Amino acid sequence: MSDLGQRIQQIETGSADKSVAYTQLAQDLVSKKAIQDLKNLVDHITNDDVQVSISRSVLSQISQGLSKLNNDDALIVGQHSIDRMASRQNTFEDEIHAARRDFEKAAKMLERINLDSISRQVDTDEKAQLQVQTAEYWFEDDDAVNAEKFINKAAHIIHIVKDQAVRIRYKVCHARIMDSKRKFLIASFSYYELSNQEGVDPSDLLVLLGMATTCAILSPAGPQKARILSVLHKDPRSPKLEQFDILDKMFMGKIIKKPDVKSFEDQLQDHQKTVSQEGYSVLEKALIEHNIEVISKIYKNISFEELGRFLEISPEQAEFIIAQMASENRLKAILDQKSHIIEFESDNQAINTYNNQVLNICQNLNTLISGILKAHPQLQKYDTHIIK
After folding, report:
1. Is the dihedral angle over the CA atoms 58, 61, 65, 66 positive or is it negative?
2. Which of 78, 84, 77 is nearest to 45 (CA)?
């Protein structure tokens, strides 16, 4: 029996989670560029006796791995997969459409499947796999709205799914959707979780960490951004990232100018370069808010005009952004529109206020105890303090 045959037999007889085991096998064969074994694996998983949810998961993994092969080998494995799926067209029709890059048809094909009408019992893993697969097809078709609809359906049951491969695909799809919808803070936390996820291809972990860092840099200023920046900065892998210089400056609270981010900006995806109605790109707005936070820790107050000059925007734009950040509780500031002055309340001021309040309580308590002991001298033997 060949090495591939032995591994398949081990999976069928000894693996608790066959989907994860087959997916790992597919990853290994792709990394080894074992073309014939990949074709044999496709033959095996497209047999009628292999559960459809497992077949779909492994075929998806092989499809993703084709980019790591040279063009000729990728064409051989891809065409063989299509031919095998075509022989079971009713089962794999969506996979055939996806292989032909017609993701809209693939998504609509899956949407037509009514799990309630199937005669056999459909387990939670299969339901989640179907919903995640549909979301992935819609996302590949650049339809983030429909993709989010199906990933939200999967969210209701993903916590009880046993198939690790499906759980990972859910997390990846969810993070990409949040990224594409410019919900960068959520995307950053999701990508970072995946960068530490067991079962993810080791070669992808640093890539996911980089994506988490990019989204963190682009996210709106505030306590949650500070939290993820701290987590990323402390990660021992981060210094290897191209984005580390900007991450370090943001975490350390340094002023960042446009020329500092030129190379970073060139690497952004199209949706990360979107310009808002205010006229700022995502990166420009993130830098302005970051620099405002830095200034708030240096100055107790500053005029709208001076702030605008420092940020290279108009005083009116500076006032609007500060007001927005303050109203969303992302910055402690008071705007005096009559005097055109911004008053910042630093964290140190908040701590001092708290300490003064504690001190006042202690002083009042001491005064109260002194009064009681003077009124009742017999209690002084219980007091360890000297009463003046």
Report:
1. positive
2. 84
Q: What is the pLDDT of residues 13-47, one digit of tens each?
A: 776 677 778 788 888 888 888 888 888 888 887 77
> Residue 14 CA to chain centroid, in angstroms?
34
Report the phi/psi class of residue 142: left, alpha or beta, with left for phi > 0 and alpha for psi in -120 to 50: left
- What is the gyration radius of the CA atoms in the chain, in angstroms? 29
| Among the listed residues 207, 179, 180, 184, the one whose alpha carbon sits nearest the alpha carbon of residue 194 | 207
Return d(Cα 162, Cα 296) in angstroms, integer: 48
**Given strand 333-336, what is the order of strands in its sheet?**
301-303, 341-344, 333-336
Identify whether the C-beta of residue 167 lies closer than 8 Å to the C-beta of residue 161: yes
| Torsions phi, psi for 210 (to 5 deg) | -65, -40
- The residues that bridge with 243 in the sheet, in sequence order, are none
Q: CA–CA separation, 295 vs 108, rounded Å?
A: 51
Whole-structure pTM value: 0.65
Helices assigned H by DSSP within 141-280: 144-155, 164-180, 184-195, 202-218, 223-234, 244-252, 262-266
Q: How far apart are CA 281 and CA 149, in angstroms?
A: 27
Residue range 238-251: mean pLDDT, rounded: 94
- List, as own/partner pairs, every contact residues 229-234 make where C-beta atoms lie below 8 angstroms and the sequence separation is at least 24, other chains included: 231/192, 232/192
Q: Residue 286's pLDDT band (boundaries 50, 70, 90)?
A: very high
Is residue 154 within 8 A of residue 131, CB to CB? The reply is: yes
Q: What is the pLDDT of residues 115-125, one digit of tens each?
A: 554 445 667 88
> Which SS3 state, helix, strand or coil, does residue 185 take?
helix
Q: Are strands 333-336 and 301-303 parallel, antiparallel or unpaired?
A: unpaired
